[in-house]
Amino acid sequence: MSTRPLREVLVKSRLAASSPPRARVRHEARATPPPGGWPCVGHFLTAGLPGRVRQPGGRAAWQSLRMDPFEDTLRRLREAFHMGRTRSAEFRAAQLRGLGRFLHENKQLLHDALAQDLHKSAFESELSEVAISQGEITLALRNLRAWMKDEHVPKNLATQLDSAFIRKEPFGLVLIIAPWNYPLNLTLVPLVGALAAGNCVVLKPSEISKSMEKVLAEVLPRYLDESCFAVVLGGPQETGKLLEHRFDYIFFTGSPRVGKIVMTAAAKHLTPVTLELGGKNPCYVDDNCDPQTVANRVAWFRYFNAGQTCVAPDYVLCSPEMQERLLPALQSTITRFYGDDPQSSPNLGRIINQKQFQRLRALLGCGHVAIGGQSDESDRYIAPTVLVDVQETEPVMQEEIFGPILPIVNVRSVDEAIEFINRREKPLALYAFSNSSQVVKRVLTQTSSGGFCGNDGFMHMTLASLPFGGVGASGMGQYHGKFSFDTFSHHRACLLRRPGMEKLNALRYPPHSPRRLRVLLVAMEARGCSCTLL
Amino acid sequence: MEREVQRVRQAFLSGRSRPLRFRLQQLEALRRMVQEREKDILAAIAADLCKSELNAYSQEVITVLGEIDFMLENLPEWVTAKPVKKNLLTMMDEAYIQPQPLGVVLIIGAWNYPFVLIIQPLIGAIAAGNAVIIKPSELSENTAKTVAKLLPQYLDQDLYVVINGGVEETTELLKQRFDHIFYTGNTAVGKIVMEAAAKHLTPVTLELGGKSPCYIDKDCDLDIVCRRITWGKYMNCGQTCIAPDYILCEASLQSQIVWKIKETVKEFYGENIKESPDYERIINLRHFKRILSLLEGQKIALGGETDEATRYIAPTVLTDVDPKTKVMQEEIFGPVLPIVPVKNVDEAIDFINEREKPLALYVFSHNHKLIKRMIDETSSGGVTGNDVIMHFTLNSFPFGGVGSSGMGAYHGKHSFDTFSHQRPCLLKSLKREGANKLRYPPNSQSKVDWGKFFLLRRFNKEKLGLLVLTFLGIVAAVLVKKYQAVLRRKALLIFLVVHRLRWSSKQR
């Protein structure tokens, strides 16, 4: 996934600097959307005005670029955090319920925004965006108190009479930078974790998915406490400015290139980061499997959201024989899924913007087109495509594809596939298809990747009980469910000793003698025998 | 340098460091090293910090041995995959979290506890199956040399490499790509390390310092409080990252505290502190001068004697310290204890919150509520109530800072987790394609509803087991009810059969 630089939006935003006052936009946002989808005013009025800060509930703060536009907002949020507003379980639960209401009451609005930005079908929107976010909220609400509880830990003999626990403490002011490919899911899921952990949050939605940016900026703040939550808008330049400020945690989803920028900026303030980046996710298809089933599963995950999914299988590794069997199966799957003319199918998404479209269209020239290959610039449509005879050195095998293009690379054996995978950066996800569980397990143990799914696409993402995140070039840190809560919490070691019993402590004080040392050793090591002694 | 890192990476890629047996073997070898070469290690530490053998043993070696034993005991359990809860869609599949080594880890040590601060992270890195490059601090050169000499004699020479050198070498080293960097040291260098790491998207653990406050409530036994503080503050001549940096208390308590610390110092180190084997020296002249400069213009209530030739600074207490003076601006890292008077606990909390988040916080009070309040209303890496330093000794605790005192944590299981990638794994089968039809396009509303049902229902085996059990119970009840009459008729027969069986078994 990617937050790629958006000069075009910036240009637009300059134009929009003379647009009508904010109040009118808000008025329209409250009004029921006109038939035929959401107004295209959205494109104009919300396109990242330079350094504009949306103050939830209150008046929009209009500030020029010359002054630091973020300072006031950040100071306000930090003060609210220091007042301890966000700490109580009730407050956190109220915020989470607010998020739930936001999803519930604006369902149509969200679907429309997603349809406008990415041509997402209701099915895709509901499953991959709304339902997953809702699931996270429900899970967090159900477990909030359990997660927040102090965690008592085993003690050694020296601290046997004391109370030892790990306190889960909010970090403070958290910055969440969201991408455009799942503009709702990848914004709300980290947000749920940050709010559940009791942080104040600054949210920076992607300026590329304009309609969703508008909804998140206009509607979302109404459902949350305005003193502890703010949405800031802007392109790369504003984000750069924003990153100069000090945060207590930064959660970034996007490309490795921007990830490095974010981490470098974070280093200046020693801010911990979670980076959810992308990568080329390999998909190994063994000879021993049913090509039709594999084709169904691979095609579905590859062409979901028009391939703009960070965990989508990026390329297929298989033997030439398997390729022979796989190609007709893929062809029939694509026809079954999207009909004879995929462009008219309501179930196939579109490329987010021209820049991405041009990039993808250039990739179509690599290798040979076996299936698809058509594109339509006016619609930003690229047909579900399969490429064969692809060389490792071609651009399509050098960068994350992030579009509905599936190259097939031939390998002779599973060993060669493993070697091929290990030669590259660690991917965010890895897939292996085979009827033999030994082959799947072998690929699993001999490679590394953020996540692994055997015999299916990114289903491991749908389980909130599994952590989600990359490793190496595909990112650092993990989230989803309880892992989100832990990511946004500082785990503080707390030991409460008894004020008395000084005789026992005398052991450790100087002057030292060898005898004292021996007793001390016993006290520190004897962990297991505690129950027999007490 | 580059070749060296490449060599270690090749060794890691050979997969040698991964099997559990290998990791245990290496940890045992490390333990053997510490036990067999104890004398060498203690001598090196003594040469660097003028530390007595007993002190070095109790402060450094004990911790290392304890950590190794703990790892050996628990590692087999930690390396196994952890199954997780599943939803309806994945009910029939295998879902688990598999810890995996990250690759090549760089550990940069500090000079104040030159042995434990490199070996303890090393234990975690080995346990997690990584290859390691160790860069001991060049300031504690004797220990650095000893470790470089000893480690290759006991551990795998390709996987675990010690590189010695100064700033220049470290800079060069940081240009290389690692899979994790573990740094212990100060905040300024911490930023440099993280920035270098950002170039390769390398995750970092930064163990930094900070001014750890120590609040003394008036409701407490000052005798005990002062003994504990004296112990923690002057241990290793104040060169401890979690030592109490300054005291916050009501102005009226100051004189008593000074007097009691004075008594305790006499008790601990004798009349002539310089002669005491239990009292260390400052690491080098630069730090010695830095600490001296902190004393300028302060009211010295205790100590203050110094000797440049031996880099000796006596246990010192400053009273009525102005928060704006230099001694309150930087981490002291020496045997100087400033007391800053505050009016009450509220002011103390404000005072702490106005500053960077410290690595540790200490509160002394008989009043449990007050301690809880301090914990609730402040933030820090760790807290100990009514004592100092002790939270470090408990390896069930994560040890690490927050904010400017660092990020990430280690010790025990937390070390293992720090150096592992928790990889989510979901293994499905290629069968049951029918159920998947639901998610494939073309789509319909009913498909959406089914999808939601499957995704959002959380199920686990226990819950399902409970359902099945209930069902079986109902079936059993129905059966019993239905065949009640038969059962009654045959009751005598059944009784006799059972009796007979028991009797015959007894006979045997």
Automatic annotation (TrEMBL), chain A:
Annotated transmembrane regions: none
Pfam families xrefs: Aldedh
Keywords: Lipid metabolism, NAD, Oxidoreductase
Domain Aldehyde dehydrogenase, residue spans: 73-490
Molecular function GO labels: 3-chloroallyl aldehyde dehydrogenase activity; aldehyde dehydrogenase (NAD+) activity
Recorded superkingdom: Eukaryota
Active site per the UniProt annotation: E276, C310
A GO CC annotation given for this chain: cytoplasm
One Gene Ontology term from the biological process aspect of the record: lipid metabolic process
Similarity field: Belongs to the aldehyde dehydrogenase family.
Protein name: Aldehyde dehydrogenase
Organism: Macaca nemestrina (Pig-tailed macaque)
Automatic annotation (TrEMBL), chain B:
GO biological process terms held by the UniProt record: central nervous system development; epidermis development; fatty acid metabolic process; hexadecanal metabolic process; peripheral nervous system development; phytol metabolic process
Major subcellular site: endoplasmic reticulum
Bilayer-spanning residue ranges: 464-480
Reaction(s) catalysed (UniProt annotation): (2E,6E)-farnesal + NAD(+) + H2O = (2E,6E)-farnesoate + NADH + 2 H(+); octadecanal + NAD(+) + H2O = octadecanoate + NADH + 2 H(+); a fatty aldehyde + NAD(+) + H2O = a fatty acid + NADH + 2 H(+); an aldehyde + NAD(+) + H2O = a carboxylate + NADH + 2 H(+)
CDD domains with a match to the protein in the record: ALDH_F3AB (cd07132)
InterPro entries: Ald_DH/histidinol_DH, Ald_DH_C, Ald_DH_CS_CYS, Ald_DH_CS_GLU, Ald_DH_N, Aldehyde_DH_dom, Aldehyde_DH_NAD(P)
Active site: E207, C241
Cellular component, GO annotation: endoplasmic reticulum membrane
Localization in the cell: Endoplasmic reticulum membrane; Microsome membrane
Keywords for this protein: Endoplasmic reticulum, Fatty acid metabolism, Lipid metabolism, Membrane, Microsome, NAD, Oxidoreductase, Phosphoprotein, Transmembrane, Transmembrane helix
GO molecular function, one term: protein homodimerization activity
Keyword Endoplasmic reticulum: yes
UniProt cross-references to SUPFAM superfamilies, sorted A to Z: ALDH-like
Membrane topology field: Single-pass membrane protein
Domain Aldehyde dehydrogenase: 3-421
Keyword Oxidoreductase: yes
PROSITE patterns, alphabetized: ALDEHYDE_DEHYDR_CYS (PS00070), ALDEHYDE_DEHYDR_GLU (PS00687)
Family in the record: Belongs to the aldehyde dehydrogenase family.
Subunit structure of this chain's protein: Homodimer.
Name under which the protein is recorded: Aldehyde dehydrogenase
The organism of origin for this protein: Macaca nemestrina
